[in-house]
Known about the structure:
By secondary structure, the chain is an alpha/beta fold. The protein contains twelve helices and 18 strands. It is about 30% helix and about 25% strand. Strands 3, 5, 6, 9, 10, 17 and 18 form a seven-stranded mixed β-sheet that branches. The chain has a six-stranded parallel β-sheet with strand order 13-12-11-14-15-16, with helices on both faces.
Amino acid sequence: MKAIxxxxxxxxxxxxxxxxxxxxxxxxxVKVKATSICGTDVHIxxxxxxxxxxxxxxxxxxxxxxxxxxxxxxxxxxxxxxxxYVSAETHIPCGGCIQCMTGQMHICHNVKILGxxxxxxFAEYIAVPESVIWKNDKSIPPEFxxxxxxxxxxxxxxxxxxVTAKTVVILGAGPTGLFSTGVAKVAxxxxxxxxxxxxxxxxxxxxxxxxxxxxxxxxxPLKRILDxxxxxxxxxxxxxxxxxxxxxxxxxxxxxxxxxSAFGITPGAIxxxxxxxxxxxxxxxxxxxxxxxxxxxxxxxxxxxxKLDISPVITHKLKLEEFDKGFSEMINKTAAKVILFP
Length: 342
């Protein structure tokens, strides 16, 4: 089969011909119909500091977001059959740690991630444990089904508490921030404010339902947020960027008694105004992945019942062989979500 592999510890990846995987007794073999490039894949492709510290084994097939058809099942597989249209939860839990045993599999202590700790889905076939396979609604096209994992991030981050009739500020309009914009609108937010430095992304945010788009290059985002909320601040702030500036802005922009969802990953340790969090009575949620599998049900329903239109976020559809173009667009921030078709 064809596969995009990280071969060398340097910038780039390589399209190679390798043997298709053989599923173990507890795995299913999936023929990939569509797969999407994630920010994590960009880190690995670029071979930045995070990737150098995180990736333990190369060569390795990249990618973790996909949709496809089951073509073979292991001898111990019980609930999945050949022909099923599936995707996968990309975090593979151990099943034995305290988190897994108390309903917190999404933050498993011994988690393995597809395309990070084991071979991924930028290929014609992938072998995946049955325990993380998700049966897709057949009405959802492969390019949409392939991005349910990042939509799940957005759903969990946005709806960890209700946003109905609330003002929601989203800091950073990468793909997950854009998905969050749509989710907040569908969930009945009174006002959605998106802050982003790239005008290309702000234009997409508007299509996803943003009421107000703020470019910090053109105006003071804190002043505008306070003006739009009559000096009170936002009920909910979602940090999707993970930069020191956005985290500082989040703490200043959230109202007293408001909610701050922390999703963006910082480049390292940062300084925060800890006392302000205390005296403002801010509730902070650390958002890691998706709830297994509560979030997946929500995502499927949003897509299957056509409540959430994600088409503006999918800006590029390319053949698997065109992966370098896809990564270039992502790195240059001239793409939102790039879908590859094997």
